[in-house]
């Protein structure tokens, strides 16, 4: 029996008050969709299977370069983080896994595994961290890690990644995500080619330590913390890395890591076509790596990304199996609430993309009917799929209204009494 931290009676009661209306809304939507030749239960079945990993660092309050305003009842350690993740999963039933970050979440792997299985959770990709110096670390990453000019620093960064693989192995992860902050702040500070050569050589060592059934996910980011040049700056460089390393290496797309007007959905399509799309860090942004809640600024773009994913899924694209992870920083909201809603935003984008009339879209494309093609996408995007999402939650034992149930349960108040405020924790300024 998996444990639930929110009283199940409370969730049932909360649902009971809403179930009648939900069923009416669901039936009405089902009738509308059937007129369009869509079977609502087939969409529901796919949404029920959809899952996204919660980043362990996301359940703590984030911060900016300027300040961090801690929230009440913040997790004190990885075990509190796992408890918070379990609440998100209990109410949404869309977040069965947790993505750990080492060394922020370093603990006895056996205890980590036990803590997760207590709630029926598992671990997704494990993230290494060579973009900040850990306590008692011998050599500093101030001037880079895997691309550092000094072989000893590179060696230390490689060792750290290998340690992450070891921890990941013990807790049941099947992927390592590597994001580095390496780059430069001034023209001339580093030699672009030599830095990338050093990075590739170091990554080869990590790749060689990867178990056969694992994937290595590399994450590109245009800028920050380096403000002039970044070693893994865009999807082109990321693709080169995956190609150079081999068949277990894939690109990870963090939505916030691009310039504001970049066509991310097209990057996604290219990576799918060349079998190198490894996964996502979902979030939203207005200006840069804002780490805002998924779908909060530009839900249409999120839909367009999912449109590419659904196209690949339905056409059976070879080797297509991207990892879904959130990567958000919550400065002004309760992280649990933000993460629950973000998981639902992904399901919404997914369900809407499943509604696209692909035959009509293709024939509009063949006939160069730009207007009808784009209206075909809009028709799917405009359809309110909320009853499908709520029904998926209900049928899997979650909450029809996760934020409402969460607030009613008073979880935050309860943990605030148990968890004294901490000055800082992993995941503050990312
Ligand atoms: C870097 C990043 C990367 C890190 C996370 C904490 O900006 O997106 O994924 O691991 O933030
Ligand atoms: Mn990220
Ligand atoms: Mn980021």
From TrEMBL:
Recall the GO molecular function terms of this protein's record.
isomerase activity; metal ion binding
Report the domain of life of the source organism: Bacteria
Q: Has the keyword Isomerase been applied to this entry?
A: yes
Q: Which residues form the Xylose isomerase-like TIM barrel domain?
A: 97-291
Return the Pfam families for the record. AP_endonuc_2
Q: Which InterPro entries match?
A: L-rhamnose_isomerase, L_rhamnose_iso, Xyl_isomerase-like_sf, Xyl_isomerase-like_TIM-brl
What keywords tag this UniProt record? Isomerase, Manganese, Metal-binding
What's this protein's name? L-rhamnose catabolism isomerase
Organism (species)? Pseudaminobacter soli (ex Zhang et al. 2022)
Q: What gene name does this entry carry?
A: rhaI
């Amino acid at each position: 029996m998996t444990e639930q931290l929110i009283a199940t009676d409370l969730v049932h009661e909360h649902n009971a008050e809403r179930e009648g209306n939900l069923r009416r809304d669901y039936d009405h939507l089902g009738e509308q969709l059937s007129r369009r030749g869509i079977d609502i239960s087939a969409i529901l079945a796919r949404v029920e299977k959809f899952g996204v990993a919660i980043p362990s660092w996301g359940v703590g309050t984030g911060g900016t370069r300027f300040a961090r305003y801690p929230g009440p009842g913040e997790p004190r350690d990885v075990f509190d983080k796992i408890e918070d993740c379990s609440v998100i999963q209990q109410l949404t039933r869309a977040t069965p896994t947790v993505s750990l970050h080492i060394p922020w979440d370093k603990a006895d792997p056996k205890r980590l595994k036990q803590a997760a299985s207590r709630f029926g959770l598992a671990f997704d990709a494990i993230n290494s961290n060579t973009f900040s110096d850990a306590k008692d670390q011998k050599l500093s990453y101030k001037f880079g890690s895997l691309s550092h000019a000094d072989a000893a620093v590179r060696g230390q960064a490689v060792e750290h990644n290998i340690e992450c693989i070891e921890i990941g192995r013990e807790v049941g992860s099947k992927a390592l995500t590597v994001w580095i902050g390496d780059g430069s702040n001034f023209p001339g500070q580093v030699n672009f080619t030599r830095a990338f050569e050093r990075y590739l050589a170091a990554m080869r060592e990590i790749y060689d330590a990867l178990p056969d059934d694992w994937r290595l996910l590399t994450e590109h980011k245009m800028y920050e913390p380096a403000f002039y040049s970044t070693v893994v700056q865009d999807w082109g460089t990321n693709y080169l890395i995956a190609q150079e390393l081999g068949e277990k290496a894939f690109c990870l797309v963090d939505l916030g890591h691009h310039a504001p007007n970049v066509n991310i959905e097209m990057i996604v399509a290219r990576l799918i076509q060349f079998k190198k799309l490894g996964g996502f860090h979902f979030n939203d942004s207005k200006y840069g790596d804002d780490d805002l809640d998924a779908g909060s600024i530009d839900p249409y773009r999120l839909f367009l990304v999912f449109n590419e994913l659904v196209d690949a899924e339905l056409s059976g694209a070879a080797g297509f199996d991207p990892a879904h992870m959130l990567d958000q920083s919550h400065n002004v909201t309760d992280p649990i609430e933000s993460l629950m809603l973000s998981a639902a935003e992904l399901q919404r984008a997914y369900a809407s993309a499943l509604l696209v009339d692909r035959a009509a879209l293709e024939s509009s494309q063949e006939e160069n009917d730009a207007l009808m093609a784009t209206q075909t996408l809009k028709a799917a995007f405009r359809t309110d799929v909320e009853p499908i999402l709520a029904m998926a939650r209900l049928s899997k034992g979650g909450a029809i209204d996760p934020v409402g149930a969460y607030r009613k349960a008073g979880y935050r108040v309860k943990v605030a009494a148990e968890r004294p405020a901490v000055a800082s924790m992993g995941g503050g300024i990312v």
